Amino acid sequence: HSVVRNALFCLETAANEKENHVYTKALMAYAFALAGKEEKRKALLGSLEKEAVKKDGSVHWQRPGKEPEVHLPYYHYRAPSAEVEMTAYVLLAHLTTQPAPSQEELSFASLIAKWISGQQNPSGGFSSTQ
């Protein structure tokens, strides 16, 4: 369809911009994965990996300029919902590929899934419904 083709053209143009926000890159990586645009997906995931926060055997993404986490003995910090969401989009982009994801991608995806599962509250939900 011409609408989808035009939308993909718009995304490809935006993906070539020098300064894209990490959230935008995460969404575009997943969109290109769904569209079967493997080269664009890989390029965005490579860029995102450079911005990843690798900590405690897990991987996630956060907004630039974010205030540092507060570590208190009686409080378990949970990331803002936007950070959980963009990290989840990166996970989806890693897993949505044809043919199936490589062993390397699955290993990296497991580190992302570890962080996301750590953001769950005691009831199994997250900080918001976003």
UniProtKB/TrEMBL annotation:
InterPro entries named among the record's database cross-references: A2M/Complement_sys, Alpha-macroglobulin_TED, Terpenoid_cyclase/PrenylTrfase
Gene Ontology terms: cellular component: extracellular space
Gene3D superfamilies: 1.50.10.20
Residues passing through the membrane, by range: none
Residues of the Alpha-macroglobulin-like TED domain: 2-130
Domain of life of the source: Eukaryota
PANTHER family to which the protein is assigned, alphabetical: ALPHA-2-MACROGLOBULIN, MACROGLOBULIN / COMPLEMENT
Protein name: PZP protein
Taxonomic classification: Eukaryota, Metazoa, Chordata, Craniata, Vertebrata
Gene transcribed to yield this protein: Pzp
